[in-house]
Write a structure and sequence with these properties.
The chain crosses the membrane at residues 24-48, 54-76. Keywords: Membrane, Transmembrane, Transmembrane helix. It is built from 4 helices and 9 strands, in the order E-E-H-H-E-E-E-E-H-E-E-H-E. The model has no long low-confidence stretch (mean pLDDT 81). Helix 1 packs antiparallel against helix 2 (52-85). Strand 7 and strand 8 (151-155) form a beta hairpin. The protein has helices spanning 19-49, 52-85, 125-134, 162-178, and strands at residues 2-4, 9-12, 87-92, 95-98, 101-104, 108-117, 138-146, 151-155, 183-186. 49% of the residues lie in helices and 26% in strands. The protein has 2 domains: 2-14 and 86-186, PH-domain like; 19-83. A 5-stranded antiparallel sheet has the order 1-2-3-4-5. It is of the alpha+beta class.
Length: 187
């Protein structure tokens, strides 16, 4: 949800908005983990039979699936933490506030805006409206680089519509211009 006043803007996580993505990623992660574990068990069985090449191929595939499962479940935890925290990004006079805490303008070296739509999407009006409302098919990230080298990434793809993200970008650009912080746009 986006809250905007004359000099501040706050993007917060709506409690139910990330649920479909979380369910999909959790299912993919659990399924990948189950298949990966089954492949590793099959590898042990093949090693006992003395068929090492098949066991090696199965072990690589099983470990790759377990890595996919770990990545999916990490993203699920990030979505849950974001919903629990509530705040995604706030732009205030003289500072930005992220889930990691406030960052004063003097501590920012650069801001990177990343936004792109994935190419393989349908053009049906209902599907396009759903994608615009849910952020499906869109990668939207704002990266704040501090002068001490630390990096804070704000992921807004699930919790902001296209219109809300455009308003957030405008507020960040106004903030960067007011404090002469360089902004890099890209993928």
């Amino acid at each position: 949800m986006l809250t905007e006043t004359a000099d501040t803007l706050a993007l917060t996580a709506d409690t139910g908005r990330g649920a479909p993505s979380r369910r999909l990623l959790a299912g993919l992660g659990i399924g990948s983990a189950a298949i990966g574990a089954a492949l590793l068990a099959w590898c042990v069985w093949r090693l006992v039979d003395g068929i090492a090449p098949a066991a090696a191929v199965g072990a690589v595939a099983g470990l790759a699936l377990l890595a996919v499962a770990g990545a999916c479940l990490t993203v699920v935890q990030t979505l849950q933490r974001t919903e629990r925290n509530g705040l995604i990004l706030a732009v205030e006079p003289g500072r930005v506030v992220t889930p990691g805490g406030p960052i004063p303008a003097s501590a920012l070296r650069r801001i990177r805006l990343r936004s792109r739509r994935f190419a393989l999407r349908t053009r049906h009006p209902v599907t396009a409206e759903w994608e615009a409302r849910t952020g499906t098919g869109t990668h939207r990230t704002i990266v704040f680089e501090r002068t001490d080298g630390a990096v804070e990434r704000v992921h807004a793809a699930v919790f902001a519509t296209d219109d809300e993200f455009a308003r957030v970008v405008r507020a960040v650009l106004r903030f960067a211009e007011a404090h002469t912080i360089p902004v890099q746009r890209g993928r």
